[in-house]
Amino acid sequence: MKKKIIYPTVFGILILIGCLFFLFVNDIANYRDEELKSDAIVVLTGGIGRVEEGALLLLNGRAQYLILSGVNKGSDLKSILFKTGLNIDASKVILETNSTSTYENAVEAAKIIRHKNFKNIILVTSHYHIKRAFYTFRKIIPSDVKIYVHPVSSPNFDENIWWKNATSIGIIAFEFVKFYWYRVWI
Q1: Residue 57: CB partners within 8 Å, gap ≥ 6?
Q2: Prediction pTM value
């Protein structure tokens, strides 16, 4: 009698998780840079190529300020940009050193955004992370602040053929779990 209830329930749950995963992965592809200018670029540090991409956006005139969120406490701009060879005006860069998670990135960035009275930002993070980052920032940042996204491709995750690489599968599966954890938590 119990098997008649347990098996269909487990099967239904697996189908639901599979559908949610499929929707999650397909939705990530919808996050694209609109190539608009903003008051500030917010880079969530920690992923390959994110800082460099944010710095290039600043150099290309996409914003007046660059916020590097989640920087190690002892770091300075020169050490962060050392390998890039980019020459950035330090007065245009804000190093945020208090956050250690996507949620904390949003909380700390919100403080800066309010203090500087920014009306719009470009959120820069890895392609696989953009959905959760955007969701989190939209929940934390005041609703009158526009958030544009700039997903960054990285060598450890190919968004076009992620299913062909075990590392990419692991990254997207872990991000899927974290996204729904954030949906419940915030």
Answers
A1: 41, 63, 66, 122, 124, 150
A2: 0.90
Report whether 59 contacts 52 (CB < 8 A). Answer: no
Pick from 115, 126, 113: which is nearest to 38 by CA? Answer: 113
Distance CA 138, CA 134 (A): 6
> How far apart (Å, rounded) are the C-alpha atoms in residues 159 and 173?
13
Sole residue written with tokens 């590097």: 68
> In this structure, are residues 113 and 40 in contact, taking their beta carbons and an 8 Å threshold?
yes
46-63 pLDDT, tens digit per residue, is: 888 999 999 999 999 999
